Amino acid sequence: MIKQIAAFLLLLISGLLVLNLAIGSDRLFPSSNTTPRLDDGPDPKGSGSGLHVGKADGGGVSRSMRMRVSGSIEFISERRIILPDGSSRPLRRYWLRAEDSRLHPDETQELEEVRVVFYDVGGPADQPTPKPSGLLEAKRAWIEIAEDETGRRRIAEDKEIDLRNVLLTTGSDAEVPDLRLSVAELLVLSTAQAVHLHTRNPAEPFDLDLGGSRPLHLKGRGLEALLPSKGQQKSPSVETDILINSDPVLTAISPSRTTRLSASGSGRYRENLTSGMTLIRLEDKVRIEGLRLGIREASGGRAEGDSLQATLHREGENETSTDPDSQTRLHKIHLAGTPDIPARLITPDLNLSCQQLDSLPSNDGEIYLFSASGNPELLTQGDRPTAFTSDAKIHLVFLRNHLSPILGSFGFPEWSLGPLLDQLAIFEGRSSLQEEGVRVKASEGLEVLRNSNIPGFLTMNGHGAVEINEGEGGLAVRGNRGFFLHATPDRETAFLGPRVMNSEHHFQVQHADLLLSGTGTCLLVRDKDTTNEIHLRSPASDIDVQLSSGRGQLTQASRLDARMGSGGLSALEAAGDPCHLITTTAEGRVETTALVMQSQEPNVWLFSGSPARVVSESQGILTGKEIQVFQLDGQNALFLATGNARIEFSDQPAKKSEPTTRKSTLDAASIEIIPFVAPPESIAPYARFLPSFAQHLHQRPHTSGYLFARGSVELQDHAVGSNKEILASGKILIMSVDDGSGCITGYPARFQRTGDQQALSGVASSIRFPATSSSGGSLMLLPEGPLTPRLTIQGSSGSLARLSGRGGTTTIESRGPIQANSKVFQMADLVKIKSLLPDGSIHPEGAQLRANKVIIRRDPQTGEALRVFAQGNTNLRWKGLRADSQELSLNLQSNLCVARGGEREAVITLPDQTSCRGPWVEVNYLTYEVRAWKTLFTEGRGK
């Protein structure tokens, strides 16, 4: 631009110097005659600097005349053009006309209505023609006249030329095309080195337009300029310097955008005429509009501040560029602000504010990077405005400006970049981000890569100690080794710390439902439906999980994956070698150990491993390949162990200081525990395999916790410090967690109790056993399947031992239930009582009894059998004594056997084959003394 201004001013000075030629070196005489007066006197110097007119004589010597000018003047200046053949010809340089002129007493010449037409050389080289290139119009002009050393009167070149109402224009095909300068008052001083010009009034407005392929518009108030002379312009170090007193405005126009620089204070414009590089300084309320920052809108971005230092590059006439915008462009910017007026960079999608804003150009000179320092803050616009801050610097990189020239050199247009992440923001030092309640902090800086045209695409790096806080109900994340985040409109993925496991990286993730901490890697994923996923890996197996609502603490995990939705934690899986889960409920502390722990639903846990292990203060120790725990209102409502399941439990003393008295072990393919008090109907479904137990359940208005086992069930219970033990086995078992009573079924179901005076064992399809702590509870062998219930009594002494025979065992079989407790053995429906030897054969000394119903009364203290009552088709064989009757009783204390008949007579046969027949027969089975009523005796052969 300055080249054009300089060229114009040089033409202007040349035009005004015409007056010097017009006036000549003699004194001037004012005249009202518009026709110049001719002086035929000889010119002392021949062809001097005055005006020469007339024809050349034959000797080639011209006649010279000098003029004193007043009134209107008109002058044509010519120059000689050397033709290709070596000859020359004159061509018009300019044409000047002033409608009036006068010489003032102070030796200044005043011109009015000045009009100067400038010409360039046109046409072919061998036939050049003058071509109009510009027009200068001034309402008035004042020049000062002085004498040189020869006494000639000339325009004083060391004095200012005063122009009024100046207008300069050029044509579109001129050397300086489409120029327009308008100024009311202009003072011009021309020296051999430069042209100096300024407005008389410091508030005088001026307006300059430069058109052509690189149009510019410069205006303001108060102009002061230093323009090097045409010869000086060839020096590479020579600069043009223009000062604008106030309200400077510089506008560069291109096909796709308009760049405008303005201020309310002063301005300075310095251009290197060789390189085309220009330094611009603006003060007070500076504004830059139309910055090309990868923005498709023609308006572009803008910058604001208190003062500006910038470089503007204008390509020379011989320079070419594929981008029309590149011919005039801002190269560098240094924009300073104040506490009241910060420096700002503003685009349709962001606002960067600071105390100092600097820029750097890309490969083609276009600005692509801004650096903000001094309390910098970046605010991005859109549906989710985001505020970024840094205690050091913020660098904003417009990648499209940087990549476009590179790709363009390979033939790729700018639109081929597509939805590129085209903005990179670099935050140095302690940095932060805030967006709709979300806050991100990084102690050693952030990098944010985003798309300015398509919202939702984002890539972010954080360094050092970092925090991500989503506010109430969201995630709160901390780490000491930075993070990486990539976001699309549908999904967000964040890596906390390095992607490769590193034990030096410490992290913490907090949510409404849990608090996670540990070392290693942390991956966070969020879908568009706000579902959060957390994936943790720890080489040190130190992942720790604090669960809310009293759900406990999970520790020593090496891997953890969690999913959270709007309703809270929906799934969690942890793995370790092993990992541990500790919960505290109303029933006490529960500690779980497993290789893998899963929370498939908010209130369901699945533990697996070899084996998984649950230790409960109230329920004992549960193990299995897999264990499920169902929770209700923060309490453990159901335990389910499968795969070699085992539970070890003991009675709960009233005081913790008191010792445990009983310990039990249960093994099964699967074990379910319902540990809390529940209505019977909630337990009844588990009794569908045990019909007789359903009635037992409904007899209790509310039941305590229950244990349900299936598949190869084996139960062992023993009293601590004694040899009393209970063993049970079968296929299915239901047992009260509170008192140990229950029922076991199978084909067969087995039950054994040892350690008492009489060891008992039972076999049946179903066995119901009493509470382990109850002395009055009944053992029930139930005929609920194809097996006949059988009760075995062994190891007894006293009267019951006499029934069994020496070293014998008593077995009781019945098609009906068999009930055994401390007071009675009771059987019904085809009862068979046998005494057997260890090899299973009939004991010759033991009792053999058959009846429809049998009751054996016992001493509850000693377990001794007191009486035996048999009813219905009774048949007794014992010690050679045989009794057949409707009813039979044995009094084992008085050694009496009483047989009663009904429709048939009772018959007792003694060892000597003596028989006693009658309605009632009594015999002492030791002395064989007989008492009878209405009895028929038949003497035996042995008598």
Structural commentary:
With 943 residues, this protein is mainly β. Among the domains are: 1-55 and 63-191, no CATH class; 788-943, lipopolysaccharide transport protein A fold, CATH 2.60.450.10. It has a 62-stranded antiparallel sheet that branches. It is rod-shaped, with a radius of gyration of 59 Å. The chain starts with a helix and ends in a 5-residue tail after the last strand. The model is unreliable at 14-67, 317-322 and 686-703 (pLDDT under 50).
* Number of helices in the DSSP assignment: 5
Query: How many E-type strands?
Result: 62
Q: What is the makeup of the main sheet? A: 62 strands, antiparallel
Instruction: Give me the secondary-structure category.
Output: mainly beta
Distance between the termini: 158 Å
- The residue fraction in helices comes out at under 10%
Rg, rounded, reads 59 Å
Mean pLDDT: 77
Uncertain segments are 14-67, 317-322, 686-703
What would you call the shape? rod-shaped
**Strand portion, in percent?**
over 45%
Briefly characterize the structure:
The protein has 943 residues and is mainly β. 5% of the residues lie in helices and 56% in strands.
List keywords for this structure.
lipopolysaccharide transport protein A fold; mainly beta
Architecture blueprint of SSEs:
Blueprint: H1 2-23, E1 73-82, E2 88-103, E3 108-122, E4 129-147, E5 153-155, E6 161-170, E7 179-190, E8 194-198, E9 205-210, E10 216-228, E11 239-253, E12 258-262, E13 267-272, E14 277-291, E15 301-314, E16 328-336, E17 343-347, E18 350-354, E19 356-361, E20 367-373, E21 377-380, E22 386-390, E23 393-398, H2 399-408, E24 423-427, E25 431-435, E26 438-442, E27 446-450, E28 458-462, E29 466-469, E30 476-479, E31 483-487, E32 491-496, E33 506-511, E34 514-519, E35 521-527, E36 532-537, E37 543-547, E38 552-565, E39 568-585, E40 588-601, E41 604-616, E42 620-632, E43 635-650, E44 662-674, H3 680-683, H4 691-698, E45 706-719, E46 725-736, E47 742-754, E48 759-769, E49 779-782, E50 790-794, H5 798-804, E51 809-813, E52 818-820, E53 824-836, E54 848-858, E55 865-878, E56 881-891, E57 896-900, E58 906-909, E59 915-918, E60 920-924, E61 930-933, E62 936-938
Antiparallel strand pairs: 1-2, 2-3, 3-4, 4-5, 4-6, 6-7, 7-8, 7-9, 8-10, 9-10, 10-11, 11-12, 11-13, 12-14, 13-14, 14-15, 15-16, 15-17, 16-19, 17-18, 18-21, 19-20, 20-23, 21-22, 22-25, 23-24, 24-27, 25-26, 26-29, 27-28, 28-31, 29-30, 30-33, 31-32, 32-35, 33-34, 34-37, 35-36, 36-38, 37-38, ...
